[in-house]
Here is the input.
Amino acid sequence: MATSGLPHDVIVRALEEADWPAVRRIYGEGIATGDATFETEVPGREALEEKWIAHHRWVAVVDGEVAGWAAVAPVSSRECYAGVAETSLYVGDGFRGRGVGKALVRKQVAAADAGGLWTLQTSIFPENRASLALHHTAGFRTIGIRERIARHHGVWRDTVFLERRRAHD
Here is the structure.
């Protein structure tokens, strides 16, 4: 995936030990929007470390501050699905609309392709149009709508199910 059109002031690098407080804060900011996740509380660091694939955790840094993060988690423990992962991507308050998400998703996709992941998938609330557009520009395609897939604050919510496939070898 080309790097053209990416902001020059956004640096994407591997998540480091010192980044965890910012990652969890940004996760909380996403939860607060009401349209980023079914989570209602920020998961603990240990739970996230256990869930996310070690070499697929990224942060975007702007002027020395963590502005967003992206990570992938396996969708199954079955060997046949070893190359299929679910993506997460969050951009912090004050950094949205500046290309942080674009830089993160590009890194996420490039690392997945290089790291043997052949399918990335994600579920996004239909109301989160910015995230849907971001993922479409990164090569994700809409597979379908998962109607009333789960309750969020007592209300049934739909999600848009998207996937991105690595080019055939």
Summary: Residues 86 and 121 are 5 Å apart (CA to CA).
